[in-house]
Amino acid sequence: MNGSVTAVCSDSEHAFSKPTRERITLLAGLGVEGDAHLGVTVQHRSRVAQDPTQPNLRQVHLIHEDLFTEVAAAGFAVRPGDLGENITTSGIDLLALPVGTLLHIGDTAVVEVTGLRNPCRQIDGFSDGLLKQVVGRDAKGEIVRKAGIMGIVRKGGAVRPGDAIRVKLPVGPHRPLERV
User: Fold this and answer.
1) CA 37 to CA 53: how far, in whole Å?
2) pLDDT at 119
3) Where are the domains of the chain?
4) Strand 60-64 vs strand 87-90: parallel, antiparallel, or unpaired?
5) Which stretches of the chain are DSSP H helices?
6) Of 120, 134, 116, 92, whose CA–CA distance to 14 is shortest?
7) Model pLDDT for residues 16-39, shown as the tens digit of each residue
8) Rg (the chain; Cα; Å)
9) N or C: which end of the chain has fewer CB within 10 A?
10) How, if at all, do strands 149-155 and 60-64 pair?
11) Closest by alpha carbon to 165, among 145, 149, 144?
12) Running DSSP on this structure, what letter comes out for residue 179?
């Protein structure tokens, strides 16, 4: 299972959306250089309010490009960076990856998948009703989160649109992604 990067985004401010860039630089153990969520400890405001000493398992946010097509069918216009992701991907079913998957991106960067993004009400502030498109329930009544995955940077490097992503699954048994 391999894919590619379709867009990269970062923002030094704690804004909901992030502007697209020509490249971003991942820093080992920290996240995206210059991004508001860079750090060893959690940087998301709601998490900082709960416990600022928790480890930052959300250094890099990745979204699969297919989500934009899916929500467009329901009337929502979403482009790379609009939902705050750092890396938009194609060709990989991100939501099906297990915890601990390594994503080798470009020439040197490696991101370890830690879990699912837990979308919040801010998504409806971006576009009213969008939250219901990215969080729902399956036939069993279980919550399904579709707003991407989170990871930590194991090895740094530059990431650009068009870069290859090579997926390395962890040794089994695999643990399914949960919200982080």
Assistant:
1) 14
2) 87
3) 2-168
4) parallel
5) 45-50, 66-73, 122-126, 131-134
6) 120
7) 999 999 999 999 999 999 999 999
8) 15
9) N
10) antiparallel
11) 149
12) B
